[in-house]
Amino acid sequence: MEGKITCLQGDGIGPEVMASAKQVLCVIGEKYGHTFHLHDADFGGIAIDTHGEPLPEATLQACLSSDAILLGAVGGPKWDTLAVRPEAGLLGLRKALGLFANIRPVYVHPAVAHLSPLKEEIVQDVDFVVVRELTGGIYFSEPKERTSEHATDTLTYTREEITRIVQHAFELARTRRKKVTSIDKANVMESSKLWREVANEVGANYPDIVLEHLLVDAAAMELIRRPSRFDVVVTENLFGDILSDEASMIAGSLGLLPSASHSLEGPSLYEPIHGSAPDIAGENKANPLAMLYSVSMMLRHSFLLEEEANDVERAISAVLAAGYRTGDLRGEATTTLFTEKVVQELAGVKEGV
Ligand code: NAD
Ligand code: IPM
Ligand code: MN
């Protein structure tokens, strides 16, 4: 198999976790006889520094012409006061590629369940997926205005935007435990009233799937009280952003959760849910797992390499079970040591075959 992957390492710990991803892709390629053509492109803060904009046209074209895109993270204090920040490049890329469906699996690894700030018995059976709408809502709706005395953001959703993301969630639920939890604020917001109405209409076409609705404030509480009740969670852009960072602590660390973003056609993008972590950038402390799980999602979804994706996950499990952990999980392994162990584990599996 041959595939072209555009690598947007970005800023902060982005380059560190991207280096880890590339090493793992390299060993998977060698082991299974695939050629991954990896192309780097400037994106985010580094692209502002070198090209004067966070999403240069050449980067967008590289993404459009690839089979999949891997992204580290963007942003950092250096660019926080600019009118056009690195984050604007990320939103622009999601919009330009039509990546409306952001899939964020939340899985508690048995080897690290005791490291969650929640009690082990609360987190041990957790296995759910947040389906976050990614190209609409308050992130993108107009008007967006700002004067020194007044600031406006607008939250608009169309029936079409809600329908396609909710359908995506129902289709996913069919492959899982057949339950969809739709999260909104329908007791206050008009966009949420439409969201709930459409979710019910879509749900009527899926009689095999249980649909429940939760208000977002109660959902935030339920995520801590009994997270194992969730299977597929579907929600709008901003709620999904906030709830998925909350959910990362069920798993034990923000450094664990991967994501995949899909459009109706064209390449998908894979990225950790975390940011550029300026507080630990350059220190070889970043947990590479969110990135490596993003790689396994890419192998499975964009390249249909199920065995290879399973192999990456199995290697990660073995390294965790052997006791290697980065600092966010109260361990002492560096990013490079953890990666090296995963690479050795992958190579070792090969020797045993
Ligand atoms: P963050 O996710 O970067 O970091 C939050 C905390 O989690 C920090 O203490 C950090 O050290 C820790 N952390 C995050 N990832 C980790 C990892 N892999 N291993 C170990 N610890 C990890 O959030 P923030 O500090 O609020 O944001 C920093 C910058 O990142 C901002 O500019 C923000 O806009 C940007 N950001 C980018 C993305 C993205 O590129 N997709 C996502 C979120 C935030
Ligand atoms: C994420 C990030 C982004 C978002 C920011 C950096 C624009 O927090 O990918 O979760 O809010 O979507
Ligand atoms: Mn976020």
From TrEMBL:
Binding-site list for Mg(2+): 217, 241, 245
Q: Where in the cell is it found?
A: Cytoplasm
Q: Which SMART domains match?
A: Iso_dh
One GO cellular component this record assigns the protein to is: cytosol
Q: What is its main location?
A: cytoplasm
Provide the Isopropylmalate dehydrogenase-like domain boundaries.
Answer: 4-342
Q: Briefly state the protein's biological role.
A: Catalyzes the oxidation of 3-carboxy-2-hydroxy-4-methylpentanoate (3-isopropylmalate) to 3-carboxy-4-methyl-2-oxopentanoate. The product decarboxylates to 4-methyl-2 oxopentanoate.
Q: How would you summarize the oligomeric state and partners of this protein? A: Homodimer.
* Name of the protein: 3-isopropylmalate dehydrogenase
Tell me the organism. Answer: Priestia taiwanensis
Q: Lineage, please?
A: Bacteria, Bacillati, Bacillota, Bacilli, Bacillales
Gene that encodes the chain: leuB
